[in-house]
Write a structure and sequence with these properties.
There is one protein chain. This protein is α+β, with helices and mostly antiparallel strands. It is 27% helix and 24% strand. The longest helix has 8 residues. It is globular, with a radius of gyration of 14 Å.
Length: 118
């Protein structure tokens, strides 16, 4: 979520109660509308030096069907995997034998938003 996208999609209302760092105000409603056509996920990860946190939620049929999930810094992922992997699994991603859902999709190719934009 770049600053430019955030500024474009926020509606100026108070931030939602899902606990995300960068979920723009009002964006939850847009995700709910989009999910009428199929499930959508919103995920956040913040890591530095291998330490960090993840958040994830999935919307389908106009409402939240998974999450919000959050694993704080210093806490291990549960047996279901990371919040992001759980969200991707809910979207239908099947991990290959050697990796999780995140790496299966190649989402580990870049370590920053700037890397994806480039």
């Amino acid at each position: 979520m770049t600053d430019e996208v955030f500024d474009t999609v926020t509606d100026g209302s108070p931030a939602g109660s899902l606990g995300f760092w960068r979920l723009p105000a009002g964006f939850e409603e847009l995700l709910a509308r989009w999910s009428a056509a199929g499930p959508v996920a919103y995920v956040e990860a913040e890591y530095f030096g291998g330490v960090g946190e993840q958040h994830a939620a999935v919307w389908a049929h106009g409402g939240v069907v998974l999450g919000p999930l959050h694993v704080e810094e210093g806490h291990a992922f549960g047996s279901a995997g990371s919040p992001i992997s759980q969200a991707l699994r809910r979207l239908g991603v099947v991990a290959d034998a050697a990796t999780d859902e995140f790496a299966t999709l190649g989402l580990d190719r870049h370590r920053s938003s700037e890397g994806w934009i480039a």
